[in-house]
Specification:
Blueprint lengths: L5 H12 L2 E16 L4 H18 L5 E5 L2 E6 L2 E5 L4 E6 H14 L2 E13 L6 H16 L5 E6 L3 E7 L5 E7 H5 L7 E9 H11 L5 H14 L24 H21 L4 H7 L4 H7 L3
Antiparallel strand pairs: 1-5, 1-6, 2-3, 3-4, 4-5, 6-10, 7-8, 8-9, 9-10
Length: about 300
């Protein structure tokens, strides 16, 4: 009996276990929509204005925003603007995941919709981008569909594979979410995003409205879209997975607290060994008596 070679055995074992681990999250990651009818215009403007206030409360600065003849405001992951008869709304990240249903309810058109699936990889991920690129190149060589395929390397954000053109109605991105986000919950995770533009964005948003779960919709769309380019992604299981919501990045205020804890706290601890707390507070421009009065019930 011929013994199986160690290398071949390893490959067979690897293919059985699969390279994909758990699906961390899936859903809407970005939406650009407009509304040009009443009362939807006013209702959507009021709703998104509330989201802007929430972003400022989280420490993001409000600033003016101009885009394609529209004028309005931006803060954090929310943009709201108008050109008079039409309202323009953009949401990204966790805000888009949470609030796309309201935007979709009042929108009369959408020009961009990003759908993502984030999966943990059960293998060293150093060559995962090259693997995806090779699959897409082999498929394109065989089918000659005219898609652009590009692998970019960034020293801080890691590798990203692009399939398609930003000017087309569909662009695929696959990137190292762990390195890009620098969040512990995304360690060894890669994200596949399908960016739908122009009329296709409105078509996909209309389809999304008919699904009860955006995560199931997103996972199905990502798998199907990547399959059409020759790239294999983790398919939906016969038994639905219980997916978590995307992690929300730290707010500006939370970032400042983190900086205070890591950079300032050690110095303050050292000074407390030699000075009393009131002296240190006054050195920071804070009057202990006034601060107590401000926070007194």
């Amino acid at each position: 009996m011929n013994q199986e070679k160690p290398a071949q055995k390893s490959r067979n074992s690897f293919s059985t276990s699969g390279i994909f681990g758990e699906t961390i999250c899936a859903g809407i990651d970005y939406i650009t929509a407009t509304c040009s009818s009443n009362p939807g215009y006013d209702l959507l403007a009021e709703f998104v204005a509330g989201l802007l206030r929430q972003e400022t409360e989280r420490g993001h600065q409000m600033s003016h925003w101009f885009s394609m003849g529209y004028e309005g405001h931006t803060a954090g992951s929310v943009q709201l603007a108008s050109n008079g008869p039409t309202l323009l709304v953009r949401l990204s990240g966790r805000v888009a995941y949470d609030h796309w249903p309201t935007v979709g309810k009042y929108a009369t058109n959408a020009s961009r919709l990003d759908v993502q699936s984030t999966v943990r990889i059960n293998m060293p991920t150093i060559h995962f981008a090259e693997r995806c690129e090779s699959q897409a190149l082999r498929f394109e060589e065989k089918h000659n569909q005219g898609r652009q395929i590009e692998l970019r390397r960034n020293s801080k954000k890691g590798k990203t594979v692009y399939v398609g053109s930003p000017k087309s109605d569909r662009l695929i991105r696959i990137y190292d979410k762990g390195k890009e986000s620098k969040l512990a919950e995304f360690e060894s995770c890669w994200r596949a995003e399908c960016q739908f533009n122009k009329r296709l964005a409105w078509t996909m948003l209309d389809r999304l409205r008919n699904w009860q779960c955006q995560s199931t919709f997103a996972q199905r769309v990502v798998v199907d879209s990547l399959e059409k380019t020759g790239i294999r992604w983790k398919a939906i299981l016969a038994k639905p997975e219980s997916l978590r919501m995307p992690a929300r990045p730290e707010s500006r205020l939370e970032q400042k607290l983190t900086w205070l804890k890591s950079q300032v706290a050690p110095t303050v601890s050292l000074l407390l060994e030699h000075y009393d707390l009131e002296t240190i507070m006054r050195s920071l421009g804070l009057d202990p008596t006034e601060e107590r009065e401000k926070h007194r019930p």
